[in-house]
Amino acid sequence: MAARPQPYLEGLNPAQRAAVETLDGPVLMLAGAGTGKTRALTARIVHLLNTGRARPHEVLAVTFTNKAAREMKTRVGQMLGQQVEGMPWLGTFHAICVKLLRRHAELVGLKSNFTILDTDDQLRLLKQLVAAEGIDDKRWPARMLAGIIDGWKNRALTPDKIPSADAGAYNHRGPEIYAQYQRRLIELNATDFGDLLLHMVTIFQAHPDVLAQYQRWFKYILVDEYQDTNVAQYLWLRLLAQGHKNICCVGDDDQSIYGWRGAEVGNILRFETDFLGAHVVKLEQNYRSTPHILAAASGVIAGNEGRLGKTLWTEETEGEKVRLIGHWDGEEEARWIGDEIESAQRGTRGLDPFSLDDMAILVRASHQMRAFEDRFLTIGLPYKVIGGPRFYERLEIRDAMAYFRVVTSPDDDLAFERIVNTPKRGLGEKAQQKIQRTARDHGVNLVEGARILLAHGGISGKGAAQLRLLIDGIDRWSSMLQGPRIEISEDDSVLDDGVAPLRMDYGPPDVSHVELAEMILDESGYTGMWQNDKTPEAPGRLENLKELVKALEGFENLQGFLEHVSLIMDNEQEGDGEKVSIMTLHAAKGLEFPMVFLPGWEDGLFPSQRSMDESGMKGLEEERRLAYVGITRAERICTISFAANRRVFGQWQNAMPSRFIDELPEEHVDVLTPPGLYGGGFGAAMPQSDLHDRAASANVYNSPGWKRLQSRSGARGTSQPRESRNVTIDMQAVAAFEMGERVFHDKFGYGEVIGIEGDKMEVAFEKAGTKKVVSRFLTGGKD
Ligand code: ATP
Ligand code: MG
């Protein structure tokens, strides 16, 4: 074959080129943020296709989010300079496993049209099981068990493999209820999220023939963000890679941020022993960020121990320092950021105008988003929230989806339970129990149970007539679904390695699924229910239902849509026009934006309270990696902020600037003056007479973090605010405490002072353990 042009190789540096061109055998690309790992991985796919080493369906490429998968697909097409004829196996672990599991569902007792439960349904199911066991949900919350089971699934542990060390989980009942839960899921023809991988690992381990087929099939395996794979994902990859051994993983140990979800950074560190003879590529040149941003990120991450330690450099010499600013509260912070965004859009401060698409706000906790959403709605600033399935979490959307689920998968009892009396059909608790009992007695699903109950006259009156209407409706709607919706067939052409390609065909629809969806919502009375509803929310809910039907248009069929929704990790609000992105730091992994805002850098929020309370440094180190991920998302402008007051779950709390702020290297930071407090610009000036205000401003300026920042003055905008001196003096009048004194803290309760360092007291709290707190948060501890 004549060599095809390879423009995609141009512009890569030698190390990247090596990673792209070393096609045989295992390759590990281990490198810091913004060094072009993902870009090299993408070029590698293009190279595989371009050189004819593999056809699109022979490449298994795993990304961390659906958004990343879409972007990679687009980029492959662009680099290749032609339309790729689909890359069916480019996606997230979950998306790929759903496809595989549909093909082999029967090997674990499922049917190929199984439904994927979301966390809400999962919890409901667990609650039922827990209640049936007579366990007090208050003492032993089902939610806790859900977490334990997820943990087991992340470690690829089926109920028969729970280690004895875990036998005591959930008051010694965990393993047994886990087994029940798994059986119940199979009865419901359903899986939860963790099952997708767990079942595939089980299938691969128990059926060597199936595994062998895919080992041959996937000639090349590529994995982005390898540092965040959990044990189940790791096992799954290792099994598949044993065939051709052409596996290329890229990652960064400093960006491992999913330890809390079972990810094991050890996977990346073990790569060379797992895959002998692995070619290890190190990339050191950063192409994303300015030197100041890079230095700030490096400064923070240096606080972690046990790092592989990587060098990062950039050819860039220009750029602004990382900007740091303290605010009165979260609302003020949102207001300021809103104003900054608008002025960046206009192109102030000698900078070219930024597009809204170029700006992102990355928060530690999703509850931080509300302040921004509210503010942006008020000032009419277009934004999108990435990473939270917010739309699909709404009540009316979940109801509507339950209807779709019953129609596509009649075994989905949870969905049936949700809709059987919504809208009200006179089918109360009692009637529902009858249906449940009939179904159980006959060993059938609830739809069948209801049918039998009706046939035997086991239910009467208005309820009976309504139930019949519903069941008839379900029958009718189901019959309008196009045949088996996904047909997976072996192509008849046989390839050189003797394996038939896999092909997925979609049958032609009778009624379009969009029309069908509308029909279901109308005929079931669900839309009518909201039309007759006089509450203020009703019109919005009807809008949302319309929006849902609109969303369906982008899919081939109902099932594909349901699958999409259950897999969705990023629901970008589609639509024209530029938008600022708001997302969590976790969701921002792998992304980049010219201008990034990192709000809420306060102890207890970031790093999270939980990580601070934990003994040992593990949690805190993961938070620090998150800080590193956050800063390294920024290309040109990075602004970190904190508030002196934060309302958390409806309660006002004083906040201390994050300890990570102290870790920012001074020479790379510009400290800005908060406008709200000192009339330095926009934002309402605070009434200085108000004690609460003064306490809060003092909090900002008295904190060790801020004091250190003050000593760095000199840079633009760092002048000491006019009135803060008074405030500081006021607050210094706060009583200090002596060693051994009994004290009280609002959050931590009573304790005894065991150490004093300036205005910081080390206190042994009776309940909360030993903590360092600032003295003004303490009062004399008389009971
Ligand atoms: P992260 O660790 O954050 O996922 P990464 O290592 O995957 O980062 P990429 O996203 O691939 O980095 O690349 C960062 C930026 O640098 C992108 O805008 C990319 O296009 C650019 N880039 C990568 N390699 C080169 C190169 N050789 N020349 C010019 N630009 C490059
Ligand atoms: Mg990347």
Keywords:
single chain, 783 residues, alpha/beta, Rossmann fold, Arc Repressor Mutant, subunit A, 5 domains, 6-stranded parallel β-sheet, 23 strands, 43% helix, binds adenosine-5'-triphosphate, binds magnesium ion
Give the structure's gist in a few sentences.
With 783 residues, the protein is α/β, with parallel strands linked by helices.
How many helix segments? 32
The parts where pLDDT drops under 50 for at least 5 residues are 483-509, 569-574, 676-699, 712-733
Percentage of residues in strands:
15-25%
Number of distinct beta strands = 23
The CATH homologous superfamily of the largest domain is named P-loop containing nucleotide triphosphate hydrolases
Tally of individual domains? 5
Biggest pleated sheet: 8 strands, mixed
Named at the architecture level, the CATH assignment of the largest domain is 3-Layer(aba) Sandwich
Distance, first to last CA: 86 Å
Structure, explained:
About 10% of the residues have low confidence. The chain has 783 residues and is of the alpha/beta class. α2 packs across α3, α5 packs across α7 and α17 packs across α18. It is globular, with a radius of gyration of 29 Å. It has 5 domains: 169 residues, Rossmann fold; 74 residues, Arc Repressor Mutant, subunit A; 223 residues, P-loop containing nucleotide triphosphate hydrolases (Rossmann fold, 3-Layer(aba) Sandwich); 176 residues, PCRA, domain 4 (Orthogonal Bundle), CATH 1.10.486.10; 39 residues, no CATH class. Adenosine-5'-triphosphate binds next to α2.
